[in-house]
Design goal:
This protein is of the alpha/beta class and about 325 residues long. The protein folds into two domains: about 160 residues, Rossmann fold (3-Layer(aba) Sandwich), CATH 3.40.50; about 120 residues, 3-Layer(aba) Sandwich (Rossmann fold). It has nine helices and 14 strands. It has an eight-stranded mixed beta sheet with strand order 2-1-4-3-5-6-7-13, with helices on both faces. Strands 9-8-10-11-12-14 form a six-stranded mixed beta sheet, sandwiched between helices. Helix 4 runs parallel beside helix 5 and helix 6 runs parallel beside helix 7.
């Protein structure tokens, strides 16, 4: 029996992904000579995409490889508990001791199996976990939504703005509404969720409904549909706030700014903590103060004084934990 693992590499000035194959024979002789603590793996519920959440995880894996010298591997389409169990078993045989599950989906699933693998540390994102060898990294979405809403309320011409979230539980949407309302009592905020990260068609239908109600700035808080929504907003000569990454390249006058989650940097920090024996178990939160979240490039449409005010408020929040 031959097991095939994908090992991440780095190609070109932009850090493009290169996938090579490491083959381990039935006798389990290992090609790599790296010690066990220097092997990490990434599990993805879907595939690596070009501008979304999964690609952020892959970039994080590349950081682990290039900055920390770890051997890394990734597996795509790990979408149910059976696949997780089989993959983790194979990774354990290969000496992997740090496994990232890229999303909330993996938190519950890792909780079901972590007790069987005391020598592996499991890391997921935005879920709730407990145990000695399992960590959930939680990005605090409320504040980034708050500042996106505040900016939108200052920039709208129609006094109507909208947020389209993927899931009901996302704090970004609540923060967006609160930030907009705190900035202006008269602002109208349309708040809808589409019930899934990949609901592109429903997100576009929601956008159409919002624009029919005169919303002129949209915050698409869903990594599976944010690019499509922004492109449609651009086509209607309206404006948007980018999500997850810096979407200024989609249109400098369209994208007022973006709420950027530096997932790749958090991967590096977590892996380094693991190497140094300092990785905490349980739920660990990251926000603006930890460098996990920032605002992206501002559009030339945003006046300098508005940019400065928002920057000062974010710095105050980073120093005190208090929103304006």
């Amino acid at each position: 029996m031959i097991k095939v693992y994908k090992k991440a590499g780095i190609l070109g000035a932009f850090g493009a992904a290169l996938t090579t194959l490491t083959i381990i024979t039935a006798c389990n002789s290992q090609v790599s000579t790296a010690p066990a603590e220097n092997k990490a793996a990434l599990l993805l519920e879907n595939t690596i995409d070009e501008q979304g959440w999964n690609n952020k995880g892959y970039e994080g894996l590349l950081n682990i490889q290039s900055d920390l010298g770890m051997d890394v591997t990734y597996e795509e389409n790990i979408s149910d508990l059976g696949k997780i169990k089989n993959t983790v078993k194979d990774l354990e045989e290969d000496g992997v001791e740090l496994i990232f599950g890229h999303g909330k989906f993996f938190a519950e699933k890792f909780m079901e199996i972590n007790g069987n693998y005391p020598d592996i540390h499991f890391v997921s994102f935005n879920g709730d976990v407990e145990g000695d060898n399992i960590t959930s990294v939680q990005f605090e979405g409320y504040a980034m939504g708050y500042f996106a809403g505040k900016l939108s309320s200052q920039m709208t011409d129609t006094n109507t703005i909208g947020v389209i979230s993927a899931q009901k539980w996302q704090p970004e949407a609540e923060g967006f509404v609160e930030g907009a309302k705190k900035s202006s009592d008269s602002i109208k905020v349309l708040n809808e969720n589409v019930g899934g990260w990949d609901k592109k068609e429903k997100a576009l239908q929601t956008l159409e409904n919002m624009t029919s109600k005169k919303a002129d700035i949209i915050y698409p808080a869903g990594n599976g549909f944010h690019v499509e929504v922004i492109n449609e907003v651009k086509g209607q000569d309206l404006q948007a706030i980018g999500y997850i990454g810096d979407q200024s390249d989609l249109g400098e006058t369209t994208v007022l700014t973006s709420t950027v989650q530096h997932v790749d940097e958090i991967y590096r920090k977590v892996a380094k903590q693991y190497q140094e024996g300092e990785l905490e178990s349980g739920n660990v939160s990251y926000d603006f103060a930890e460098g996990a979240i920032s605002m992206g490039t501002y559009s030339s449409e945003v006046p300098e004084d508005v940019q400065q005010e928002l920057t000062e408020e974010i710095e105050h929040y980073k120093e005190t934990g208090e929103l304006p």
